[in-house]
Amino acid sequence: MNANSTTFRFAGLVFLFQILAAAVLLFGLGALLRSQSRDAAISRAETMRTDLLESYQFGGAEALGQAVDGRLMAGGSRGAVLFLADARGKPIAGNLRQVPPRLAPSRGYTLLKVARTDHVMPEAMFLRVGRLTGGELFVTGTIVESERKVLAQLERASLAALALSIVFAGFAAFVSTRLITDRLRATVATLRNVRGGDLSQRVPRDGTRDAFGLLGSEVNATLDRVETLNAELKIATDTLAHDLKSPLTRMKSALDRLGRTVREPEALASVDQALAESERLMAMIETALSITRAEAGLGRESFERTNLTEMLATIVEIYAPMVEDEGRMITLNASSAVIVPIHRQLMDQAIGNLIDNAIKYGAGAITLSVRNVEGGVLIAVADEGPGIPPERHAQALARFQRLDDARGGWGAGLGLSLVQAVARLHSGTMELRDHAPGLEVAIVLGGQADPAA
User: Fold this and answer.
1) Which residues form the Histidine kinase domain (predicted)?
2) Best CA proximity match to 205, nearest among 193, 214, 196, 194
3) Which of 213, 231, 330, 379 has its CA 20 to 30 A from that of 322?
4) Does the residue 176 lie in any domain?
């Protein structure tokens, strides 16, 4: 999962919120129990202190000492801590050996670990010491050792529960993101198939009316509209091709008849030029329509499994005489059969355009190559001519743009545009590369090649 993806961030938020909720619940509960335990212990100690100070008011230190011993011996004040000492700290009564050194006279209670007279091990207790009107020191408190042990166990249990909640939170985050991914997977698969040319694909309906169901409905509505527009485009291009080519065909036929009757050299040259221009115009229209159809995704239904190695070998054989007449060579670099589904006619036309460009504008040997690469299949046509500067690549790919109008010839600036459109029709890309020297035009077709039979 990509760390920068929305799904990953959503999983992180789910995980974080669940951990925070568990931490607040567990540690908040522990803090509440500690507070309640402290308040209850101090309340019991204050109640004892108030009761015993009444004895001091009526009988002084002696009466208070007797009351302290009586309270401790009675057993009704289990967990009570009482201690009375004279002004110099000498014990008078109680269950402590002395006033704890860290306990200073105050109106508040302090949590200390102190051992009682009949105990060896120190215990946790809340204590308060105050100086009476006669100078005596009077300590009251409540033992909370058992409560502290319970709270310590609770804290350990809370930490264990928090650790377990981390596991559960991670699992919950995984499940929630998996549910989202599963809901979106059908939509992604549908769009991928549509991109591959199957415009009949639709997102399955699951009957829900949540955001994912709404997304699926909107995607299906959009695909319905795209399919309709695509059908209308096919009809329009077919009609346009017929409407444009029919008068041009009639004009070409008329020029042919005129050429057979004209005898004057100047008139015959004009007729030949008009014929050439009409053929050029028909080729331009056919190429422009091919580009439009390819960019609209029309023609994928005509894909067929083709051995590119054999197809390129045939193309090399066809062009070899023309290239040799120029005193140059054309070769194929392919080590094994590469079989992929393609539109054979359009691909043949695209590669032919590249070879024509290499013959017209390149120099040296022309090399065709085909091989499997990461993510697809590479078809390349390279020459050893001057190439195209990188800063002019965009201009070379623009429609009706020629890098050098002075070159002459029949070019209309549509050759590379057609190659690029054919590459996109095959879910691929086209790149212009420096062949050092010369230019290499690389077509990368999306998808993997089929195993050779």
Assistant:
1) 239-449
2) 214
3) 379
4) no
Buried b / exposed e along 260-294 (16+ C-beta atoms within 10 A): eebeeeeeeeebeebbeebeebbebbbbbbbbbbb
Q: What is the DSSP string of 346-402?
A: HHHHHHHHHHHHHHHH--S-EEEEEEEETTEEEEEEE-SS----GGGHHHHHSTT--
Long-range CB contact pairs, 347-353, < 8 A, 24+: 347/306, 347/311, 347/422, 347/426, 348/311, 348/315, 349/290, 349/418, 349/422, 350/418, 350/419, 350/422, 350/423, 350/443, 351/312, 351/315, 351/379, 351/381, 352/315, 352/319, 353/415, 353/416, 353/418, 353/419
Assign residue 271 the CATH number of its domain.
1.10.287
Read off the pLDDT of residues 278-332 as tens digits, 9 standing for 90 and up: 666 666 666 666 666 665 666 667 788 889 999 999 999 999 999 999 899 999 9
Q: How many domains does the chain have?
A: 3
Amino acid at 191: L
Residues 307 and 286 reside in one and the same domain:
no
Partners of 103 in the β-ladder:
none
User: Can you read off the two tokens belonging to residue 25?
Assistant: 């619940």
429-436 long-range Cβ contacts below 8 angstroms, 24+ apart: 430/397, 432/388, 432/393, 432/396, 432/397, 434/387, 434/390, 435/382, 435/383, 435/384, 435/387
Task: Examine the domain organization and report whether 29 and 134 are in the same domain.
Answer: yes
Find how far residue 64's CA is from the centre of its chain.
Answer: 77
Q: What is the CATH number of the domain that holds 433?
A: 3.30.565.10
**How far is residue 34 from each of residues 80, 151, 155, 157, 328, measured CA to CA in Å?**
19, 7, 10, 15, 94
Asked if pLDDT for residue 84 goes beyond 90, the answer is yes
- 284 and 247 in a common domain: yes
21 part of a folded domain: yes
pLDDT band at 372 (very low <50, low <70, confident <90, very high): confident
Residue where one domain finishes, among candidates 298, 323, 353:
298
**Band (373; pLDDT cuts 50, 70, 90):** confident
Asked if residues 138 and 84 have their Cβ atoms less than 8 Å apart, the reply is yes
Strands 439-446 and 376-382: antiparallel
Q: What is the pLDDT of residue 96?
A: 92
Instruction: Give residue-wise pLDDT tens across range 202-217.
Output: 888 777 777 777 888 8
Per the structure, the complete domain to which residue 72 belongs is given by: 6-149
For residue 95, what is the DSSP state? S
